[in-house]
# Entry
Amino acid sequence: MSSKNIAIHLPDGAVREVPAGTTPFDIANSISPRLAAASVVARITPLASAAGTTAGHDTDSAEAGMYAAEDSSATRLVDLATPLAEDARLELVTEKDPEALKVVRHSAAHVLATAVLELFPETKLGHGPATDSGFFYDFYREKPFTPDDLVAIEKKMAEVVARDEKFVREYEPREQALAEFDKDGDFMKTHFVTKFTLPGSEVSFYRNGKFVDFCRGPHVPSTGRVKAVKLTALAGAYCWATKRTRNYSAFMAPPSSRKKTWTPTSRASKKPPSATTASWASSLTCSASRNWPGPASSSGTPKARLSAR
# Structure
């Protein structure tokens, strides 16, 4: 940790002088261990930045919010484990904050992807953003998922939550990330890295256990903070690209960080989605139906990115 001290301004007006490299969790724990346990992420505003600016995105906001480089001068949410390097205003965000719920939902999407790859390692990942009502994650797989698969996936997700794996942010050179995704046949991840990162830059990934995904976060401290998830729908879409039909599937779910028990299991059906899930289906269809270039042909099965980096 650096010998340089920085000033952290808290919502009650208090100012704490701490060594650079101190994390929001360190500060929360110094105030109250109970507050540290209740915090999900932190909201920081660098004091050297223009007052009142907030990180935001335009047309591709859902995707850009997951992948594009952060504006380090703007107010933004960060992991509790993020080292603080400059004077800033700091607010500890608990589950009562609406923004915290979206972080929990996005972390739940990573739990879903972890479970899917552990059960079906040949699956290729799309992306898994939080929505206003839950989250979804879209996938590519030669054999479509079935309602019975959802039962198995929910069970596996419960195991991932019980393992309480830490979410850890890592970085990798962009060119190395693209080479690895291309080698593994992860064509959708290649699309996102190419679209939202710059040549020569470092690419952000998040790891929980052996699962690694391209993502800028933030995330809850560990998978154990995703208390309950019910997979409510399974949708499929066929994409025509390079004159070939592609099969995509996606799951939708409304996770909670507050329930103490796991709630299995809702099977997908052929019935139209309820009013509650209609908005998810609309968002899902847009994501699952994009004109992906499709996986390159290969004599073997490309490796999933479940293996350790």
